[in-house]
Amino acid sequence: MNGTAARTLTALEARWGRAGAVHFEERFGGLVAVLTTANANAVVALQGAQVLSFVPAGQDDVLWLSPAARLGTGRAVRGGVPICWPWFGAHPSDSSKPAHGLVRVRDWQVVGSASSVAHSRLVMAVAPAAGDGSLWPGGAWLQLEITLTDTLALALATENRGGDVLAITGALHTYLAVGDISNATIEGLSGRPYIDQLAAQVMHGDAAPVTITGEIDRIYQETADTVTVVDHARGRRVNIAKQGSRSTVVWNPWIEKNARLGDLGAEGYRRMVCVETANAGSDVVTLAAGARHRLFANISVEKIET
Ligand code: BG6
After folding, report:
1. What three-state secondary structure class fits 100?
2. Does ligand 1 lie within 6 Å of residue 249's CB atom?
3. What spacing in Å lies between the alpha carbon of 196 and ligand 1's midpoint?
4. Cβ atoms of residues 281 and 221 within 8 Å
5. Does the Cβ of 173 fall within 6 Å of ligand 1?
6. Distance in Å, CA 41 to ligand 1 centroid
7. Is the CB of 158 under 6 A from ligand 1?
8. Does this model's pTM top 0.85?
9. Which residue has the least CA distance to atom 15 on ligand 1?
10. Maximum CA pair distance of the chain?
11. Per-residue pLDDT tens for 142-164?
């Protein structure tokens, strides 16, 4: 660690550290916060305010993280929960702009921490950088609150502090770990229409749970429902309850894209599926001056009783 990083770490610890609940370390070549409760722990990178790990007591990590994860490279780490904002996917009018928006590779600031017997909390914020110009929606203020109990709750708040109406999309781009993708199903999306991003057309979802047997890239629309990944190999159900979202993205790159992307590990696609609490597709959030939007997800795990 260089001298500057060491001083930042000391300052973070002094200002926001909380004994037994929130502390700061260097991992993956960058600074992270480690949140701890009696029932879980979580790791959050300051880069991107990206949660990298969520381990409830007695469980394997709920989040998948690339074996190549490295902070500070100017590229988003693949895994955990990258924050997509203020646009999801390609920029609506300029495809030369970075996919999934501006903030997933930015350094965020810690602006709050809290703890009690039951919870640990970290609050992070990011402001526009010099040169963002019109890319940063005028007057938009952004904050992420991460609350760990035996569940992981993420609340991404956008407030319009400018005078004009804002339109934003985004996602809590959650990479869930699965024991074996061929032995996992996704419940809670039955019968919903979805934009098939691979075919660029709108489809109508089946009544059956979603199974993954090839590349999948879907924006499910008109759904505020909890989604559950049933991971038979690990004997658990991972529930993602949400608010402020009427779209859910399901993504798995499968074999060829896994190889093309290069940062998933040899067989990463077998061990992960993205279920993203989103505002995407037709689910565009419009904020009048002074209005606030909260994109919220709560991730919990239950054992499958046998
Ligand atoms: C998903 C998108 O959310 O993210 C996919 O639906 C995209 O189209 C995937 O490929 C990964 O994006 P990135 O920019 O992190 O490689």
Report:
1. coil
2. yes
3. 13
4. yes
5. yes
6. 27
7. no
8. yes
9. 78
10. 57
11. 999 999 999 999 999 999 999 99
